[in-house]
Amino acid sequence: MASHFPPDLLSEQIANQIKLQIRQGDLAPGAKLPSLRHYSQIKGVAKNTVVQAYELLVADGYVEPRHGSGFYVVGVPQAPVSAERWAPALDHALAGIGIDRSAFHLAGGGHSVGEGLPPSAWLENCRLDRYMHKIGRSGLGSVFRYGDPYGYLPLRQSISQKLGAYGIEARSDQIILTQGAYQAVDILIRHMVRPGDTVLVDAPGFYPTFNKLSLQGARIIGVPRTPLGPDLVFLKRALRASRAKLFFTQSVGHNPTGSDISAETARELLALAASAGLTIVDDDALADYKPGHCARLASLDQLENTIYVGSFSKSLSSVVRVGFLACAPRHVRELVSVKTVLSLNSSPFAERTVHAVITEGRFHKHVLDLQQRTRRAVKDALRQFGKHGATVFCTPEHSLFLWVKLPGVEDAAACTRALLERGFALTPGAIFLPEPGAVSPWFRFNVGFMQDAERMSALWRAIATQQRGA
């Protein structure tokens, strides 16, 4: 039976299935893949879709074509970092040149221990292809039309229940679906920020938000992050001096530090927001990597002075970009209007796919698996950092990211440039600061990419060699 959903998504899912089989050893090096025709018949997809999937595998180094014979497994690739690709992107990112902060990570091709996404192997067991098949067959006539500007209602209802488990009371009509958390932030900035407005952000913080604010012409003030949350002494001074009305932060699973706001800091911050007329945007895109009992700002003030942003992109797939924002009823209509101007609506196909995943039982186990993987990875990463004399900003039990100073390194960007020549890419802390050209001794490490013992041993040796030569 032919599939009735986007072939580019299907080809990527097929490629990911085969990658998983190769990683797990089900397809050993030298094994021959089924012929294009045979595989298309097995999966019930167009032959061209299989061609695209095999081409992705070849491009990623998992498979090689042999003329007149077919496609054969090479194994799990260990591709080197390309200094030619990374160095220019790094320089632009440090200079704060537009969206090139994001391009720095795109240039890496997923080989950096500072990567912003989880390892693909952590997400592949979700088997999105199964749900895509189901939605493609059952949703004909609806998934390829413009949907509800608010987003697919059953998914909004499921998100309402999910937020309820966090202690956040939000009805489905207070939830707006978006194309990832990034679009949710864009909608909020377009609606709430005018050129010349002062906006507060975490420093260090999520640099794509800096990009959006800069494009909108905002004046950005970075609020120092502590292991317990935003520095409230600095925040009070900044509010008195600037009268800012908007603060973008992450209360738990902070990117890049991994810190969680303490209950005391959260209460003080919300009291300050109420007295100053400050709206807090709490970006919780990594919520699924944290246990639900972690205190979130929105659960303490019930969206009175907070707007909650969430996403499924980092827990399911960055290909299926579905995010959302939850806010007080007074904001909803105007935010939906902004969304409609920017993109008409979000993706009915992606929204229905996510809804199918989270309502059919697999998702809860998948989230628990992510949290267990993250906990183990954090424990192993902390052991490595302790062994090599590194300083860790804070030690959360669950976090995809850790904020780290390496011994003897004062300028993380300079160290990164030197390591690029040795085939390793780190992510220097200056990228996460709102001031272009800032210098920082800190690095962001993604604990999920520190599990390859051989690769990490080589990295630690390269760091030691670079430090001796500095």
UniProtKB/TrEMBL annotation:
Stretches assigned to the HTH gntR-type domain: 8-76
CDD domains documented for this protein: AAT_like, WHTH_GntR
Presence of the UniProt keyword DNA-binding in the record: yes
Example GO molecular function: DNA-binding transcription factor activity
Keyword terms of this UniProt record: Aminotransferase, DNA-binding, Pyridoxal phosphate, Transcription, Transcription regulation, Transferase
Domain of life according to the entry: Bacteria
PROSITE patterns: HTH_GNTR
Gene3D superfamilies assigned: Aspartate Aminotransferase, domain 1, Type I PLP-dependent aspartate aminotransferase-like (Major domain), Winged helix-like DNA-binding domain superfamily/Winged helix DNA-binding domain
Family: In the C-terminal section; belongs to the class-I pyridoxal-phosphate-dependent aminotransferase family.
Protein name, entry field: PLP-dependent aminotransferase family protein
Species the sequence originates in: Alcaligenes xylosoxydans xylosoxydans
